[in-house]
Design a protein that fits this description.
single chain, mainly alpha, Rossmann fold, 2 domains, 5-stranded mixed β-sheet, two-stranded antiparallel sheet, 7 strands, 61% helix, globular
Length: 596
């Protein structure tokens, strides 16, 4: 009788904790892009913001043959048009994708695919930068948790949503890369950080406070530590001082190289960037002669005084901010009504509770990293110090202007990942003090934006709180089904609500008088006074700008400057105007007239 072999029963394979974490990250990343949102972006060019629509218009014009240095939007305030202050460095890849895909798919489908998939591609870049930086400093587990936190940080995910082709996401990547370079230290990392700082400035000046504080960290590190910190300081100064002029020259027409622009990279900011590089070289040359903190501080104070004093003397117009020449009417009736220019108290006063998923987590990150920079593990204090220094501008500026949190939000996962890793490790350590374990777990959870949804939803604030009808009305005015039918009309200049300008440019062949951009003060004034004033005001601006069509959004009527606006009463049928011919387009959302 043959012997029967016996084998031990196999245990079912188990997933280790690391694999589970990676699967969770993958799941969260995939669910960032609901199929419905992607399909709507592809089919109907549904973009989150007016800036995304205008960016697509710029990229489309570049792909169609408009000159690289010619950044005038000729269908915006014709016939002269409005020169854009946006960067060609971001228009270029979008235009390149359009040129590659249009012959294969047609222009409409190509634009939809580019708008839908460009943000996820950038999110992959952001995730790669975040992973590399956190893994190098805090370890692999913290890096995986940082990626997980990134998928749950509203300030991050909103900038990488389908259709979000504006510049804030690329700027977020540049500032995160700058921070990681400063954390690593050394000449090569410092030069990379400086070059990324220059890239951020070339894309837009929103990152200027972060760049200034990044430079301050490099300078302060040299003042306190001397020669060991010199390579990073010198590298940052040279990287910024060389890259900024090169990027400026690459995207700016030579005849404009001497023109001052307070809202874009131009001579005022080149003075600071290139001057900072020269100052770093001067400090390096004097390093052996100034062996004390006091001596190095004196050198830095002298060079800083030259830079700042020269800026004030040479470019005094920029001391008042990026919007010189803006009239009180435009500031009060347009700029201060824009969501991204609103303060946190204004959001709360209007019961716009969604601000609670953005601002508190930023505040907690800034406070926690500030504490850790002084009291945390010695090996990580430099990392926490850089993060804290770059988080505080977002916290302070964001309190007064919501857009201040945009760039800073990209640094939250850099802090949240290590905090979550530390909290999980202590939670499993029975020997650790319960108060410490509970505190670190609470900190880790508090650094995840989605956690802040829980008390808000439980309280019914988002569901039953602030009035969201104005936001819904704004989207309705710009939507594909409302605006695209206007393309059937013979091309002409349109006077429409400011918020509609980019959508009209993107979806129709018409020109517009007004769009939400501060360089077009006459157009903004025409929309505010013309659509918000009397019949005489409307006729005056229609004649001044050669307007062929007047449009009123029924779901968002203009607020009158002094009582009910004539255009609003006209849309309601309360008054008549023989010089305006009603047109049967616009459906239930828009009211359209042809000027006779």
């Amino acid at each position: 009788m043959a012997a029967t072999a016996s084998f031990p029963a196999r245990k079912p394979a188990r997933l280790d904790a690391g694999t589970i974490l990676w699967l969770l990250v993958l799941f969260c990343a995939v669910t960032l892009y609901p199929p419905g949102d992607v399909i709507e972006t592809i089919r109907h060019l549904r973009v989150p913001d007016t800036d995304d629509a205008m960016r697509l218009v710029e990229a489309r014009d570049l792909a169609a043959g408009q000159g690289w240095y010619d950044n005038v939007q000729y269908r915006f305030l014709p016939p002269g048009g409005v020169p854009s202050h946006w960067s060609r460095l971001l228009d270029a890849p979008l235009a390149g994708l359009l040129l590659a895909l249009t012959p294969l798919l047609g222009s409409g489908l190509a634009e939809g695919i580019v708008a839908a998939f460009w943000p996820p591609l950038l999110f992959v870049v952001y995730a790669a930068v975040l992973w590399t930086g956190v893994r190098t400093t805090f370890g692999k587990r913290a890096a995986v948790l940082a990626l997980l936190a990134a998928t749950q940080t509203f300030g991050v995910t909103v900038q990488f949503a389908a259709g979000r082709i504006d510049h804030h996401n690329l700027q977020m990547i540049a500032i995160l890369g700058m921070a990681i370079g400063l954390i690593r230290g050394g000449g090569r990392a410092g030069a990379g950080a400086g070059a990324l700082a220059a890239l951020s400035l070339a894309i837009g000046l929103e990152g200027l406070p972060s760049v200034a504080l990044g430079a301050l960290f490099a300078v302060g590190d040299w003042v306190l530590r001397g020669r060991p910190a010199l390579p990073a300081f010198l590298g940052f100064g040279i990287g910024l001082g060389l890259a900024a002029p090169l990027l400026f020259g690459a995207q700016t027409a030579p005849h404009l190289w001497g023109a001052t622009a307070c809202d874009a990279l131009s001579p005022p900011w080149l003075w600071l960037a290139a001057g900072g590089g020269a100052a770093a070289l001067a400090c390096a040359g004097l390093d052996r002669r100034v062996g004390s903190v006091g001596g190095r501080l004196a050198v830095v104070a002298a060079t800083g005084a030259v830079l700042v004093g020269g800026f004030a003397l040479l470019f005094p117009v920029c001391l008042g901010g990026p919007f010189p020449g803006m009239t009180p009417l435009v500031r009060d009736r347009w700029l201060l009504t824009v969501n991204e220019m609103s303060s946190v108290p204004k959001f709360l006063a209007g019961r716009r509770w969604e601000v609670l998923v953005y601002y508190p987590v930023l505040a907690l990150a800034a406070l926690a990293t500030t504490w850790a920079a002084f009291r945390g593990p010695a090996a990580h204090r430099r990392a926490y110090g850089v993060a804290a220094l770059l988080l505080w501008p977002g916290l302070v500026i964001g309190w007064f202007q919501f857009r201040g949190i945009y760039v800073a939000s990209g640094l939250i996962p850099l802090v949240a990942g290590p905090a979550l890793a530390r909290g999980l490790a202590l939670a499993a350590d029975r020997a650790a003090a319960p108060r410490l374990r509970l505190g670190l777990v609470a900190l880790g959870v508090g650094l995840v934006s989605t956690a802040w949804m829980i008390p808000v939803v439980l309280a019914g604030l988002i569901r039953d709180g602030g009035d969201t009808s104005a936001t819904a009305a704004s989207f309705a005015c710009q939507a594909d089904d409302a605006v695209t039918p206007l393309a059937a009309l013979p091309p002409g200049t349109v006077l429409a609500p400011i918020i509609m300008g980019p959508s009209i440019l993107m979806r129709t062949p018409h020109a517009v008088v007004a769009a939400p951009y501060h360089r077009a003060i006459p157009g903004l004034t025409a929309a505010i006074e013309g659509l918000g004033g009397s019949e005489a005001d409307l006729r005056r601006h229609v004649a001044a700008h050669g307007v062929r069509y007047v449009i009123v959004c029924r779901t968002r009527p203009s607020q009158g400057l002094d009582g009910p606006a004539f255009a609003t009463r006209l849309a309601r049928g309360d008054v008549q105007a023989d010089w305006l011919e009603p047109l049967p387009v616009g459906g239930d959302v828009l009211k359209v007239w042809r000027v006779r």
